[in-house]
Write a structure and sequence with these properties.
The chain has 271 residues and is α+β, with helices and mostly antiparallel strands. The chain is 13% helix and 15% strand. It has four helices and eleven strands; from the N terminus they run E-H-H-E-E-E-H-H-E-E-E-E-E-E-E. The chain has helices at residues 33-43, 48-52, 109-119, 126-134, and strands spanning 24-26, 54-58, 71-72, 75-82, 161-162, 166-167, 197-203, 226-229, 248-251, 260-261, 265-267. The longest helix has 11 residues, at 33-43. It is globular, with a radius of gyration of 18 Å. It starts with 23 loop residues before the first strand and ends with a strand.
Length: 271
């Protein structure tokens, strides 16, 4: 797992290493709005974005004339939007009508864990996620090989054009797309790169290597940020070339945004 890609980000700690994973199960798709809605209906769960009263939204997804809100200093295209949550991805004026099959967004790591408890599943470790995302291809950049657009075909939902002001939507999407859009990889997984970032179980550290645990590594024992994998529909080579299988980043467990979701994994049942 990992990569020695010379264009990777050193602070992310992608460096290649060899690990083994025991058999496991993983969902073919990220959790959809429909599935998350079933969970909320059954449990009454209130997401952290709902409790906080706001979440981060990409500014380009907001309607013209949207009132000014606080932006992230290092990434001003991210806006703090009151009322943004999984039901209202772009704020109170939005909803998920027609997006039942899109990935749920504005879910924190903590929210994802609660969904897993309800569904009898868990989050994948980073090693499991990357093994599954590679689809059996050794060290390939993408789930289908090393070409970003093989034979000129788009294979994932990422930004085309000039980020952050122009998206030509050559792949057919501005924002998220259905969880089963684009062809799956050889293991049957859809959209493991692009569309939405996916939470993993591990704590994030740029240099931690569990050298004493080559089998089923689980990352550092503690930390401040959790691992995210896969990139999102906002990734573009000019600033975020993290739409590769090996790419990773960390985020605080209570964070949420309109390009962040998750998929579940599970242990193989024993006889």
């Amino acid at each position: 797992m990992g990569s020695d890609d010379r264009l990777a980000y050193p602070d992310d700690g992608e460096g290649p290493r060899e690990v083994e994973v025991s058999p496991f199960l993983i969902d073919t798709c990220t959790v959809s709005n429909a599935a998350f809605g079933e969970f909320v209906a059954a449990t009454g769960h209130v997401t952290e974005a709902e409790r906080f009263g706001w979440s981060f939204v990409f500014g380009g997804a907001l309607p013209d004339g949207f009132p000014p809100t606080r932006a992230v200093a290092a990434a001003p295209w991210w806006r703090q939007v009151d009322g943004a949550d999984w039901r209202h991805p772009e704020g109170r004026q939005s909803d998920v009508v027609g997006r039942a099959d899109h990935p749920v967004v504005h879910v924190s790591h903590n929210d994802a864990l609660q969904f897993c408890v309800w569904s009898g599943k868990r989050l994948p470790t980073e090693a499991e996620w990357e093994f599954a995302a590679r689809g059996g291809l050794a060290m390939a950049a993408f789930p289908w090989g090393d070409e970003l657009e093989p034979s000129g075909q788009h294979r994932m939902n990422v930004w085309q054009g000039r980020f952050p002001n122009e998206n030509t939507m050559d792949d057919g999407h501005y924002g998220t797309c259905p969880v089963d859009a684009f062809p799956p990889n050889a293991y049957g997984l859809y959209n493991v790169t692009g569309n939405v970032w996916e939470w993993a179980a591990d704590w994030f550290h740029p240099s931690f290597r569990d050298h004493d645990r080559r089998l089923d590594p689980a990352g550092p024992p503690t930390g401040t940020h959790r691992v995210q994998k896969g990139g999102s529909h906002l990734c573009h080579a000019s600033y975020c070339r993290r739409y590769r299988v090996a790419a990773r980043q960390g985020n605080e467990p209570d964070s949420s945004s309109n390009n962040l979701g998750f998929r579940c994994a599970a242990d193989v049942p024993t006889a």
